Amino acid sequence: MRMVGLTGGIGSGKSTVTAMFRELGAQVIDADQVARDVAEPGTPGLEEVARRFPGVLDPSGHLDRAALGRRVFADPGERRALEGILHPRIREEVARRTEALARAGVTVVLYDAELLIENGLHRGMDGVILVSAPEAVQRARLAARDGLDDAAITARLAAQLPLADKRAHATWVVDNGGSLDETRAQVRRIWEEIRGSG
Q1: Which CATH class is domain 2-196?
Q2: Spatial separation of the C-alpha atoms in residues 175 and 9, rounded to whole Å
Q3: Which tens digits make up the pLDDT trace of 137-150?
Q4: What is the pLDDT of residues 100-158, one digit of tens each?
Q5: Which residues lie closer than 8 Å to 161 by C-beta, 6 or more apart?
Q6: pTM
Q7: Which residues pair with 163 in a beta bridge?
Q8: Distance between CA 70 and CA 155 in Å, rounded?
């Protein structure tokens, strides 16, 4: 089975592009969903996060992602501590899901991870798709989608490699600064190329 990474900066429209790949039949492992799953109530991941970061559980015992985000995006040391707790669990769960897809006969899997390159996960992949958008577009999307102020947006953008640096690792680039039809055409071309090169 071939594994292709799918990444992009926050607010680049990666979720939209991922949905377009799914519409074309792509099997996708979503790193954000895996991260949520390994930190569900009752899991060792959530227990360890709650011990390390007191006050990040809501009254029902679920992770308060906004409270945790305020702590880890403001402090690189705190972010590394969180990554140290969750990343090994995420890797284990991704391996389990990948093996299940391989047993089901899937030949290509897209691994959707915002920090794919920052965390070195692109190494060993059979290619990397980068979703790119101008910074002004990213900022506008983050303000509209998440209600973040400019300082919070700047902190989240600073926690990632600039898109220009990510381009050096990309096999394919989806320019998501234009219309949905333009983006869809790029996605279709890339998916055909990936499927044809297997």
Answers
A1: alpha beta
A2: 12
A3: 989 999 998 888 89
A4: 999 999 999 999 998 899 888 999 899 999 999 998 998 999 999 888 889 989 988 88
A5: 117, 118
A6: 0.84
A7: none
A8: 10
